[in-house]
Write a structure and sequence with these properties.
CATH topology of the domain at 32-145 and 287-309 in chain A: Rossmann fold
CATH topology of the domain at 62-311 in chain B: ABC transporter involved in vitamin B12 uptake, BtuC
Structural class of chain A: alpha/beta
Number of helices of chain A: 12
Radius of gyration of chain B: 23 Å
Radius of gyration of chain A: 23 Å
Largest sheet of chain B: none
Order of helices and strands of chain A: HEHEHEHEHEHEHEHEHEEHEEHEEHE
CATH class of the domain at 62-311 in chain B: Mainly Alpha
Strand order of the largest sheet of chain A: 2-1-3-4-5-11
Shape of chain B: globular
Oligomer: heterodimer
CATH class of the domain at 32-145 and 287-309 in chain A: Alpha Beta
Chain lengths: 415, 386
């Protein structure tokens, strides 16, 4: 009994003993604080790091802007907190604008934003503002990564010796399905037109791990998935998840003497983990969109919008203007790089409506289950591409849009 | 009988002093190590403490958030008191929480969501919430029952059975809410179910939209029940006897197999309730990818640190809640105000340090100052095992 009492007293002392006031921290007069909520670690060499980097870009380019970030907000890593609580913490710390950077935050962002009408919210990659579900202080933006993924697919097709590509996918949703299909379209085009091979002979498999990154015991292990692809004959691993396991695995296999290559995703610097076998990386350059939003909110001119930002076709790797880019990797020969640049040029012409360009979202395209996505000669609309659904333009609520599907020719399921 | 008055004093001092000092020594050692870790990371321990306080106790809103994390942790710990007292290492508690979360969500789907409600019963809000609690207790309890059956029938140690069942529960949960699973809304981009309908949500405090008084009542009731079991009932005594020596308890007439089932199922039911708290929390109201998030494992540490004492678990779990939530504020505080990034696993390290040091201190005390009383207090005997 006495021992219990003692433990009690000590616990009380630990909890209340050190009570003292937190020293007020000086905040510069004209400082503009914006919050960035990340679903993964800010140094994941992928999705979350690309967002964190954008925050640093804003701090460097918008005078007076100061980022406060919280990494790894997900129910496995931070069971003790929720988006609602984090938003409150950020607002208490003075944030006037909060970027929530995951599809996983989309629903909660829309609900929480209604509680803070004076704070502006951006859910990256969401579309609640497009449907008019989000309150007026919440908007969305996203980069047109399907072009980056087409370039990635082309690079893989230019390189593969076995004619077999493996895609490590996160979870199934319209965005990820769109990106897998983009890689496939790019790969198929280049396999046929630059390699002179039969597009039908190209093997393209996707395995979904179940979440944006590995959560041990919760998702499939992307390391195992990557190894399984290589064991199954694939020689180019394309990453669609937030982190770089497939790059690490490919690098290990290459060190053992195997001819394998890899294409990471999201973060410009992610080839650094395996420079020699990296064919390049399609990456998001969120900085300009962040800076534009911060400036608009600072000036009081921000209004709700859903934006799908395009690459700057004059230079897709311009850090100040292009929303997505493709960093060429050392795994490509100079000749292959030239071919790839030619492909990028065709995409650019297609996107800007110039003569001789290509738009790979042109029918005939059909889904895995045989249903038609686009009829012969039909070019997909923006919404049809966004949702990977034929009826996207007719639908009036998100529920009416048919679930996204992989294109015929892709191996892997969507459920 | 030569024990003079002086001798008696000396003897009791000799027994009591180490008992009182051991936890002090443990906590002091833990604090010293924590201070060293913080210094090594470049963080001022004084400022760190301020952040912990600010993030958990300073304002009423933070206290409300703290309580909403504390309650599921506490009620899970109550359940674990049953199994750990009986010598059952219920590692499967994490999976039992997940199954409880699934059970509560299932109740919402059965009774509240018109699209999915196959039963068509109109229970009203309170009826649905009660069904959530009942179903979560049943699913959590059944999951623990499976582990107990594996142990009793299949001779599978409850640790191994628990680990396997955790994995199955987590995988089943992911199947439900991800990749177009049956409980993921069509076209959803988040790994979770739809938010529960507004009308079935738990009542909240007027001032704190994220805390519900209901979970406090349920937890308090569970505390009373566990205390009655442990300190009043014969069954509590039987569990203690099993914990000391299951074979002897059996020979003395304790129905040990039945008690394994009951203790595990009781713990599973409370863990299941904790799972329902996690999904019904007013700022969650959905089944997410990882509804338990390691809270069950944290509760195991709580019970070990409280040395299976039912009355201590609320306090120890409170400290762990403070460490968890305060740790997050500590991390964000240093990052936002000082541009100092602390390692993300620091919080877990701090928590483990406290447990390790206190357990070590008890161990040292038992090794060097063994209690001499003819009839040792029950939980001292259990500390020996830890």
């Amino acid at each position: 009994m006495l021992k219990k009492l003692a433990v009690l007293l000590i616990l009380a002392a630990v909890v209340f003993g050190g009570v003292s006031s937190v020293a007020p921290r000086a905040q510069a007069q004209d400082e503009f604080i914006f919050g960035v909520v990340l679903v993964g670690p800010k140094d994941d060499h992928g999705w979350s790091q690309a967002h964190y980097t954008a925050g640093l870009y804003v701090e460097a380019n918008v005078p007076g802007a100061k980022m406060i970030a919280l990494e790894s907000l997900n129910s496995a890593d931070r069971p003790e907190t929720t988006l609602d609580q984090v938003v409150q913490e950020m607002v208490d710390a003075g944030a006037k604008l909060i970027f929530t950077t995951s599809a996983d935050f989309e629903v909660d962002t829309t609900v929480v934003a209604a509680n803070y009408p004076d704070v502006t919210f951006i859910n990256v990659s969401g579309d609640d503002a497009l449907w008019g579900i989000a309150p007026e202080n919440a908007g969305n933006f996203m980069g047109q990564m399907e072009y980056g993924k087409m370039i990635a697919g082309c690079a893989a097709a230019l390189k593969t010796q076995t004619g077999s590509l493996g895609y490590v996918g996160p979870l199934v949703d319209p965005e990820t399905t769109r990106l897998v299909n983009s890689v496939y379209l790019g790969a198929r085009y280049c396999y046929e037109n630059y390699r002179g091979m039969d597009a039908a002979a190209l093997k393209f498999g996707v395995t979904w791990i179940g979440f944006w990154f590995n959560i041990p015991g919760v998702t499939l292990d992307p390391t195992e998935v990557s190894n399984a692809f290589l064991d199954g004959g694939a020689d180019v691993l394309i990453s669609g998840i937030d982190t770089t396991e497939s790059v690490v695995v490919a690098n290990q296999r290459a060190a053992e003497g195997a001819s394998v290559w890899t294409i990471p995703y999201d973060f410009e610097g992610s080839c650094a983990e395996a420079p020699e076998i990296c064919l390049g990386v399609p990456y998001f350059n969120w900085g300009p969109a962040y800076a534009k939003t911060v400036e608009a909110v600072m000036a009081g001119t921000w209004t709700q919008s859903w934006e799908w930002n395009a690459p700057d076709w004059t230079d897709i790797n311009n850090p100040d203007t292009s929303a997505v880019g493709f960093a060429y990797g050392d795994g490509l020969t100079d000749e292959e790089k030239a071919t790839l640049a030619e492909f990028v040029d065709l995409l650019a012409k297609g996107a800007t409506g110039e003569e001789g360009g290509i738009n790979l979202w042109t029918g005939p395209l059909s889904f895995q289950d045989g249903t038609e996505f686009l009829a012969d000669g039909v070019v997909a609309t923006e919404k049809q591409i966004w949702f990977q659904a034929t009826n996207a333009d007719e639908a009036t609520t998100p529920e009416e849009v048919t679930p996204p599907q992989l294109l015929a020719g892709v191996e892997g399921s969507t459920n | 009988m030569q024990s003079t008055r002086q001798g008696w004093l000396w003897n009791s001092m000799r027994d009591m002093l180490p008992a009182i000092l051991a936890p002090f020594a443990g906590i002091a050692a833990a604090l010293a190590i924590i201070v060293l870790i913080l210094e090594w990371q470049g963080a001022d321990p004084k400022v760190a403490w301020d952040y912990v306080y600010e993030g958990t106790l300073q304002t009423s809103e933070r206290r409300a958030d703290l309580v909403s994390f504390w309650m599921p942790l506490a009620i899970t710990s109550f359940g674990l008191v049953l199994t750990y007292t009986a010598g059952l290492w219920n590692i499967g508690v994490e999976g039992q929480m997940i199954m409880g979360a699934i059970g509560a969500t299932w109740a919402v789907r059965l009774f509240a969501e018109s699209k999915n409600a196959p039963l068509g019963l109109d229970l009203g809000r309170n009826g649905v919430i009660i069904m959530c609690f009942i179903l979560s207790a049943i699913t959590g309890g059944l999951w623990a029952w499976v582990a107990a059956a594996l142990k009793v029938r299949g001779k599978v140690n409850e640790i191994f059975g628990g680990v396997a069942l955790n994995f199955i529960a987590q995988t089943f949960n992911m199947y439900l809410v991800s990749n177009g699973g049956p409980w993921q809304p069509t076209g959803s981009r988040a790994t979770e179910t739809a938010r529960f309908p507004d009308w079935v949500r738990l009542p909240t405090f007027t001032d704190y939209r994220r805390l519900s008084p209901t979970i406090i009542y349920v937890t308090a009731a569970a505390f009373v029940v566990i205390c009655l079991i442990m300190y009043v009932s014969r069954w509590g005594l039987q569990l203690r006897a099993m914990g000391k020596n299951q074979r002897s308890a059996f020979l003395l007439g304790v129905r040990t197999e039945r008690n394994v089932y009951l203790a595990m199922a009781g713990c599973g039911a409370l863990a299941g309730l904790a799972g329902s708290f996690r999904v019904l929390a007013p700022d969650v109201v959905k089944l997410s990818a990882s509804p338990s998030g390691g809270v069950g494992f944290l509760a195991i540490l709580v019970v070990l640190l409280a040395s299976m004492s039912a009355v201590l678990t609320p306090f120890v779990s409170f400290v762990f809640a403070v460490l968890s939530k305060g740790g997050q504020r500590l991390e964000s505080g240093f990052q936002w105000d000082y541009d100092l990034t602390l390692d993300r696993s620091l919080v877990r390290v701090l928590q483990s340090t406290v447990v390790l040091m206190v357990v070590l201190a008890f161990g040292a005390r038992n090794r060097f100052f063994p209690p001499r009383s003819a009839q040792p207090v029950q939980d001292e005997a259990q500390i020996d095992r830890t």
